[in-house]
Write a structure and sequence with these properties.
The protein has 5 helices and no strands. By secondary structure, it is an all-alpha fold. It has one domain. The longest helix is centred in the C-terminal third of the chain and has 28 residues. It is globular. The chain starts with a helix and ends with a helix.
């Protein structure tokens, strides 16, 4: 059942990503296209990676190749999302905090599952990036909403 649910989630993720990419190709100047909510594209792939690693560890199926691909997809989104985030004028980056937290978790789980030790260092680096983003977001929230 876990493998079926993961496969279904990956299919839905693919459909949603396709819609976002279609819109990016047909309406590249739409301001909402570059809103921080685009970070869910990376976060969704990181969540799929973490779920797949958990399924593989539990012995419910040999799906390691799938989780490596979802980790690569999550990683590939990062440069594109950083470039898109530069276009944000208001600095409202609250939606990137959760995906940036999921990415080091997924990267560490992939490092443990595959034995690729270099991913452990990458996970730690992104942990600090995620923590910094969280702290900056909290400080901005406090500055804007508590006066």
């Amino acid at each position: 059942m876990a493998v079926i649910l993961l496969a279904s989630a990956i299919c839905v993720y693919g459909a949603m990503t396709g819609l976002v990419l279609w819109r990016a190709a047909h309406e590249p100047s739409a301001p909402e296209l570059y809103q921080p909510d685009m970070w869910i594209l990376m976060g969704g792939a990181a969540i799929a990676t973490l779920a797949g690693d958990s399924i593989d560890t539990a012995g419910f199926g040999e799906i390691r190749p799938v989780t490596v691909v979802t980790w690569i997809v999550a990683s590939a989104w990062i440069p594109m999302l950083v470039a898109a985030s530069v276009r944000l004028r208001d600095g409202n980056w609250w939606a990137m905090v959760f995906p940036l937290g999921m990415y080091p978790s997924a990267t560490f789980a992939t490092a443990v599952e595959t034995g690729w030790q270099s991913l452990t260092r990458l996970s730690l680096a992104f942990f600090w990036i995620a923590l910094a983003a969280w702290l900056l977001t909290c400080l901005r929230f406090r500055r804007v909403h508590i006066r």
